[in-house]
Amino acid sequence: MSHLEHSISNMITKLEYDPTLRDWFIGFTPTKEDGYMFSKHPNMDKISNLVVSDNHSGASFAYTCREVKQRLIQKI
Predict the structure, then answer these.
(1) How far apart (Å, rounded) are the C-alpha atoms in residues 76 and 62?
(2) Domain spans of the chain, in order of start
(3) Are 42 and 50 in contact (CB under 8 A)?
(4) From the centroid of its chain, how far is CA 36?
(5) DSSP states of 16-52 as a string?
(6) Nearest-CA neighbor of 40 among 57, 50, 28?
(7) Inter-axis angle of helices 42-50 and 3-16, to 10 degrees?
(8) What pTM value is reported for the model?
(9) pLDDT tens string 19-66
(10) What phi and psi values does residue 74 have, to the nearest 5 degrees?
(11) How far apart are CA 36 and CA 76, in angstroms?
């Protein structure tokens, strides 16, 4: 499994442990100015802290968020 796939899988797993946070994330759309990388929403800080072990850069975190959201929506 690539590092990217591991990061995506890890974020999905962490979000599945907290259905309220997962549902919020599915419905959340960051501003165009901030995106996921610079979002100041406290729930984004929670998610970032849940996956701190993945050693994301800002760009990899943002990409992972977009991919995770797409995969979670497909599961619905």
Answers:
(1) 22
(2) 3-75
(3) no
(4) 8
(5) HT-HHHHHHHHH----TTTTTTS---HHHHHHHHHTG
(6) 28
(7) 120
(8) 0.92
(9) 999 999 999 999 999 999 999 999 999 999 999 999 999 999 999 999
(10) -65, -30
(11) 22
